[in-house]
Design goal:
The chain has 262 residues and is an alpha+beta fold. 53% of the residues lie in helices and 6% in strands. It has a 4-stranded mixed sheet with strand order 2-1-3-4, with helices on one face. Bound molecules: glutathione. Glutathione is lined by residues 11, 14-16, 38-39, 41-42, 53-55, 66-67, 102, 106, 110, 158.
Length: 262
């Protein structure tokens, strides 16, 4: 099928939308990106699509919403290079990793993001550097940042980004990243040819890496290498945000060398 017109609905800094961008670019499919402001995006999306979230695409007038539906659609539209392996067993493993990346892992960076951005409003503009004009309501990004208070408060409420949840989310990050590192060492993701799970999971790690203090704790993991490789262009840079004791569980246990006994 030849695509003549593809429109991607996104939010600046949205990780599943970034996953779709990277998949489109990997396949060499040309597209136009429409960036919407967060929260407000729900109403705009609901007018055009069945659901209220990004990412969504319109391909020659057809609507597809959700990063996992879109990855499948892209493989039908343009089979090469494939986003899913041909071998049924390998495909099942990639599909399961992609599902985990979407349904479980994706929310972790989202929850901590809003909490941090409320405290580092000045850094919000770094996510807009890569946005289309729609993300700014036609106003300079410094005005979008200055008027972001209500959006941030609403996003915090919608994502339950309370102190308690954010602390628990940071504690859950280490085990989740261990899971990503396992998927890489098992060869499900991290191969030479990236698949749909690489893009889905890599985008969440790319968002985590925008938080300087989180990045410092995870940068030596294979998971971080995946994000550096697939998302070198990911926007956003947020200064230290989280209390050090909340980040402490992210410290990796160095495997102590076996003690000589006897
Ligand atoms: N799990 C969905 C993503 C759904 C989602 O929560 N998207 C966010 C952006 S990362 C959104 O639309 N947020 C708008 C809002 O919560 O107001 C997918 O992978 O397609």
């Amino acid at each position: 099928m030849t695509v003549t017109d593809l429109k991607l609905y996104s939010i600046p800094g949205s990780h599943p939308a970034a996953a779709v961008r990277a998949m489109l670019e990997h396949k060499g499919i040309a597209y136009r990106r429409i960036d919407l402001p967060p929260v407000v995006s729900r109403a705009v999306m609901r007018l055009r699509f069945p659901g209220n979230r990004v990412p969504a695409v319109v391909v020659d007038g057809r609507k597809v919403q959700g990063s996992r539906s879109i990855s499948r659609e892209l493989d039908v539209m343009q089979p090469e290079p494939p986003l899913f392996p041909a071998d049924p067993q390998q495909r099942a493993a990639v599909e399961e990793a992609e599902r985990w990346g979407d349904e479980e892992f994706q929310q972790l960076p989202r929850t901590i993001s809003w909490w941090a951005l409320k405290r580092r409003k000045g850094d919000l503009g770094t996510f807009l550097e890569d946005a289309g004009p729609g993300a700014r309501f036609g106003m300079p990004s410094r005005i979008a940042v200055a008027t972001s208070g209500p959006i941030l408060r609403m996003a915090i409420r919608l994502n339950d980004s309370t102190d308690e949840t954010v602390r628990a989310t940071l504690a859950a990050l280490g085990p989740a990243l261990d899971q990503v590192d396992r998927l890489i060492s098992d060869g499900v993701i991290g191969g030479e040819q990236p698949n749909a799970a690489d893009f889905q999971i890599g985008a969440s790690i790319a968002l985590l890496r925008t938080f300087e203090d989180v990045r410092a704790m995870i940068e030596d993991r294979p998971a971080a290498g995946l994000a550096r490789r697939l998302f070198p262009w990911y926007p956003g840079r947020v200064g230290p945000s989280f209390p050090p004791e909340w980040l402490a569980p992210l410290a990796r246990q160095e495997s102590a060398p076996a003690r000589q006994t006897g």
